[in-house]
Amino acid sequence: MINAVSPVINNQRMSKQETKVSPFSAVERQKTIYTAGMSGQKPKIPIDLTQLETVAKDRISKEAFAYISGGAGKELTIGSNRNDFSKWQILPRMLRDVSEHDTSIELFGRKLPSPIMLSPVGVLEMAHKKADLAVAKAAAKLHIPYILSNQASTPMEEVGKVMGDAPRWFQLYWSKSYELVESLVQRAEASGCEAITVTLDTTMLGWRMQDLDLAYLPFLRGKGIAQYTSDPVFQSLVDKADHQARPDNRITLDTILALIDLMKTYPGNFFKNLRSGRPLKAVRTFINLYTKPSLHWSDLKFLRERTKLPIVLKGILHPEDAQIAIDHGIDGIIVSNHGGRQVDGSISTIQALPAIKKTVKDQIPLIIDSGIRTGADVMKALALGAKAVCIGRPYVYGLALDGQRGVESVIYNLMSDFELNMRLSGYKSIEELQPDILKFVP
Question: Which active-site residues does the annotation give?
Fold first, then answer.
């Protein structure tokens, strides 16, 4: 089996403005795979990112697959995210000399080799034991920005260490505790994060039927809460919390196994955790303050006063909200419906993008996620006004199949697909990807 991932960045330490990106070649990627095939070696990671999900399903637990793949309600939004890309068709041009090309972009002072970024995905320990660290190393190797999850399995400080000077942002879920919000942001800055991405669409969990059928929420078992358990403010909140009330559920073998799982997952010694009961108290504290349904535009002032980093809002789908974001001095927007995990029947992100671009114009950068699976998808998103695109589930499936190398392969394959699709359509640079290269077919 092969992975065939080549370094694409200069590893010398340098400032953000001076970051240099060495050449990346999709043609060389193809050659490597085909040459290995002469020796009977086939790619370990499926090239088709939709097929990747099918293969990964057999490698992880049913609870993990449901959490990663599932969406809200009947998952109509997941379908729309994918299907609506096909409504935009590319108009290729010929004989335009694409021997020279450039897929790089500049985003918040960073020169990047590709417009591809990694979305924040929580509870990666369900996919692979190396979790966030494996993803971080892959992103750093390919110089792809990684948005660290608020619901990570590894504290941001540990992730920052393995990424060195590579670009990374931090996703913020706004909890009920403003003191905790401030602490997470301060830690993100200290960990080398270069932007704060505020997720707007998860003030409550969506109605995710796959998870509900399994009656499984990983946070209750202490998974995906490493940013909290490593936070001094959160620990002080645990100390102050009053959790005298006990659920009246009957104690079963499953209850005992779940508690054992929690004691093993929580930082520290298993037996000490068992004696102290602190892991259970921490989980209850987390559940009580995790989300803030009352989150409002006026809250953004609190964040702006506490960080000089760019603030990017993730979850904008309506052009009026995009305008309000600009009015509040926001630095960027991620057009997102959370991969279809929150609102069933929501507008797809590619459908929402043109109207938002019309409102925003070039005032702030637009990024888009949800449903991107091919180089053609990337090309269409950029032509409709996105500065960059984010992928989520595909790299998690790559992680499940082959750890860091699996993530690298997923990224490299998508970068290659995008480069070739762009050049074969007659375009040498991202600047040439404008709305008129597409035809809308309802």
Answer: 338
